[in-house]
Specification:
This protein has a single domain (about 10-195), classed as Maf protein (Alpha-Beta Complex), CATH 3.90.950. The chain contains 7 helices and 7 strands, in the order E-H-E-H-H-E-E-H-E-E-H-E-H-H. It has helices spanning about 15-25, 40-50, 55-70, 95-105, 140-150, 180-185, 190-195, and strands at about 10-15, 30, 75-85, 90, 110-120, 125-135, 175.
């Protein structure tokens, strides 16, 4: 057994640079693979049926894990994160102007990030967990908002909330209730516990 993973290893069914950075930082070797899941189509269909933001995250995480797991011997980790604000699900914005409007809307109020993780093996889901963090933005000034967006630039468009907690985005908040890795989109404690139980991480 190596100092980290054993046996077949791990596959991350995600194109997210933040999730990859989380595993890199933890010293866990993995292979990254894209799932090919049409996330927009899944969201649209689920919302039309009345699904909530948490349910959407859970469904997408499972679909990603299963899609990559078929025909592969490794444990495959699928993950998804959704932002819920005042009962609605929000997607990423495309422009700085839209980012400014998003942040003005979130300003001074709490929102939730639902991070779902599903582990699959041989095309079957063997474990799942969804963790929610509640983040409250402070009532920052318009001048601060303009300076923040000028400093972040296009990087602000990389997350649905238009912030990176590991960067200057942390200055937007007055309170954070939740796990740091949940906010980054890949809760680790339960996942690593499973991998240790399965002999894939050193104990």
């Amino acid at each position: 057994m190596s100092a980290t993973l054993a046996k077949a290893g791990l596959v991350l069914a995600s194109k997210s640079t933040a999730r990859r950075a989380v595993l890199d930082g933890a010293g866990v070797p993995y292979e990254a693979a894209t799932s090919g899941v049409d996330e927009d189509a899944v969201k649209t269909a689920m919302l039309a049926k009345g699904a909530g933001a948490r349910e959407v995250a859970e469904a997408l995480a499972e679909l990603k894990a299963l899609a990559v797991s078929k025909g592969r011997p490794e444990y495959v980790v699928g993950a998804d994160q959704t932002l819920e604000f005042e009962g609605g699900l929000y997607d990423k914005v495309e422009t700085i102007t839209q980012a400014r409007e998003r942040l003005r809307r979130l300003r001074g109020r709490p929102h939730q990030l639902h991070s779902a993780v599903v582990v699959a093996k041989d095309g079957v889901a063997v474990w799942r967990e969804t963790v929610t963090a509640t983040l409250t933005m402070r009532d920052f000034s318009d001048d601060f908002l303009d300076a923040y967006l000028a400093a972040e630039g296009e990087a602000a468009l990389g997350s649905v909330g238009c912030y990176r907690l590991e960067g200057q985005g942390v200055q937007l908040f007055s309170n954070i209730d939740g796990d740091y890795f949940t906010i980054l989109g890949l809760p680790l404690m339960g996942l690593f516990g499973l991998l240790r139980q399965r002999g894939e991480l050193a104990t």
